[in-house]
Amino acid sequence: MAHPTVKSFAISNELSVSLADLVVELSKESIKSRDRFTIGLSGGSLPKLLGADLKNRKGVEWDKWEVFFCDERIVPLDHEDSNYLVCKKELFDHVPILPEKIHTIKPELASENEVKEGDEETIDAVTENYEQQLIDFFACAKSIKFPVFDLLLLGIGPDGHTCSLFPGHPLLDENILWVAYIGDSPKPPPRRVTLTLPVINHARNVAFVATGSGKQDILYQIFEVPDSNLPAQLVKPENGKLYWFLDDAASSKLTLP
Ligand code: 6PG
């Protein structure tokens, strides 16, 4: 893997402009080469930072976008904890991405009662449905080992988690599944569905976005204490590029060029 590109900005607006620049550039390149742009979105603060500038960009071929989710919480898609809902409010409501090209993880496949009971079988319906959507979309004619996204946008938690992949969790060793369920997420809500590390590491581009002083210590550990085995450190796209978009509050303990 090539060295990551790390950028830090004084204010979040500047970060949003630079992030939108990258997304627009990768969208153009991908559409030129493959006639589509496959992007995976995360929850947390990312959708707002992403949408802030991107939603005002002209000339983006939104109808060629194929949107997926890096992770989702097992709550209805109109629940305030839903990653889909925050992406809708911050981006989808403002730009003409085609609704049929927004490939949601479907928590509704797990019924309310069964979710409360913690029925793994029912959760399987959610993970299997999302994996099948990915297979239908990415595998097409040839069989492939992992899907290759044009861009995955990831957040990072103060514990070093990304997607719904948490430090020390057995899911970090997953090397076959594309999509996995986690029922004991330390960050609420506890029940989630996530892309796995090999999927992330097959992407053409992966960009982390982290802002605020609450991320200082974990960023220091990620950058300056190699091999801490933090989920974010395990993100090393095999043939892709890795970007970090930080603000100065988050990056203040790092030595950046
Ligand atoms: C989620 C996210 C998660 C998030 C990080 C960072 O569903 O919780 O996808 O991975 O991106 O926890 O969240 P913040 O940006 O809010 O700190």
Automatic annotation (TrEMBL):
Pathway(s) the chain acts in: Carbohydrate degradation; pentose phosphate pathway; D-ribulose 5-phosphate from D-glucose 6-phosphate (oxidative stage): step 2/3
Keywords carried by this UniProt record: Hydrolase
Pfam families: Glucosamine_iso (PF01182)
Domain Glucosamine/galactosamine-6-phosphate isomerase: 13-244
Enzyme type, top EC level: hydrolase
GO molecular function: 6-phosphogluconolactonase activity
Record carries keyword Chloroplast: no
Superkingdom field: Eukaryota
Catalytic activity, EC: 3.1.1.31
InterPro entries: 6-phosphogluconolactonase_DevB, 6PGL, Glc/Gal-6P_isomerase, NagB/RpiA_transferase-like
Catalyzed reaction equations: 6-phospho-D-glucono-1,5-lactone + H2O = 6-phospho-D-gluconate + H(+)
GO biological process: carbohydrate metabolic process; pentose-phosphate shunt
Record NCBIfam families: pgl
UniProt xrefs under PANTHER family: 6-PHOSPHOGLUCONOLACTONASE
UniProt record similarity statement: Belongs to the glucosamine/galactosamine-6-phosphate isomerase family. 6-phosphogluconolactonase subfamily.
Role of this protein: Hydrolysis of 6-phosphogluconolactone to 6-phosphogluconate.
Protein name: 6-phosphogluconolactonase
Taxonomic source organism: Cetraspora pellucida
